[in-house]
Amino acid sequence: MIASPAPTTPLSGGSPILAMARRAAELRAAGRDIVDLTLGEPDFAPPIHASEAAVEAARRPLGYTPANGIPALRAAARASIRRDRGLDYADDEIAVGCGAKQVIFNTFLATLKAGDEVVIPAPYWASYPDMVRLCGAVPVITPCAMEDGFRLGPAALDAAITERTRWIVLNAPGNPSGAVYDQARLRALADVLRRHPDCLIMSDEIYAYIRYTDEPYTSLAAIAPDLRHRILLVDGVSKAYAMTGWRVGWGFGSAPLITRITAIQTQNCTQTAALSQIAAVAALNGPQDVLAERNAIYRARRDAGLEILRRSDRLAVLVPDGAFYFLPRSLSDVDDATAADALLDAGVATVPGSAFGSPGHLRLSFATDLPTLEEGCRRLIAALEGRA
């Protein structure tokens, strides 16, 4: 399938993920037994040393911090990416924000003008297209086939780029697909990007530590160092360190781009909360064994959920290589929004795949405890097969 601009319709009014989570919460409050598999929110506590650092900091006066993050956080993030991904960035090449989401939005706001295009592979994180539209630009949705692991291919990328293209978004491991790019695929994409020197690359790597392949994680910036000045590499503590509500993220990029992003930050919220930054420093600098321990738990959940979902001939399920989502395709004739409504009525909350540019699919989060996940998968299959 070829890429096409997304319809220039008004914004949906909010995240469809949060909308389904809200409906599930309302039903539970009314007394219904609902298994909620909507949110991509780890069910773990933050590392204890991160929480303790915040508690200690709260006992002393805290004022405003630099808009671009406290020096200790910038240093910790730089040391972390050097340690784990072999990439070196200077202090003026990092922008700190209230979560990776704000960093991405600040970046688009700082660089996009009306009529610019942003290539977004589908399935995509539901917020990307609306962020682009809010900046007056046009999201160009590029479908990626389930049969190719939901990965963007070089030919599809080349076909999607026009003279209006300002950004290409890459998210791996992907939300909602779990897709991970191997080094060969990254090199092939880099070859295409070299032919389009005016395009910037958003490499959203917020799930980099949550993956299940044996091959070491590799960033595009490491595979193609000649493209490094065009890449904004986005990360944060939300997923890996189970610190979603603390709202700390950052982006690594060229100093001129970082300056523009920080200028936006100074006007929309001044800074990330000081306590959250201090906790993030402790998470990055403290013991890292928690990452492998939790990754093993996610992998066990993934395998247990797959074993149940594959019992049904009404679903086609791809094994996710990273993140913590299933994106099964329903083999029935019912559209995904109707299916999600029916499943909610049957006691399991999911998110329609159309929210991620993948109609006909459903997203299930396995960032929840194993008994809850298994019960949710069983209810889903029972409902699809008419046994609910």
Description:
This protein folds into two domains: 4-45 and 289-384, Aspartate Aminotransferase, domain 1, CATH 3.90.1150.10; 62-285, Aspartate Aminotransferase, domain 2, CATH 3.40.640.10. The model has no long low-confidence stretch (mean pLDDT 94). The longest helix is centred in the C-terminal third of the chain and has 21 residues, at 289-309. The protein has helices spanning 16-29, 48-57, 71-85, 99-111, 127-134, 154-160, 183-194, 220-223, 255-268, 274-285, 289-309, 336-345, 370-384, and strands at residues 4-5, 35-36, 94-97, 117-122, 138-143, 165-171, 200-204, 231-236, 249-252, 315-316, 325-326, 329-330, 348-349, 351-352, 362-365. The chain has 388 residues and is α/β, with parallel strands linked by helices. An eight-stranded mixed sheet has the order 1-5-4-6-7-8-9-3. A three-stranded antiparallel sheet has the order 11-15-14.
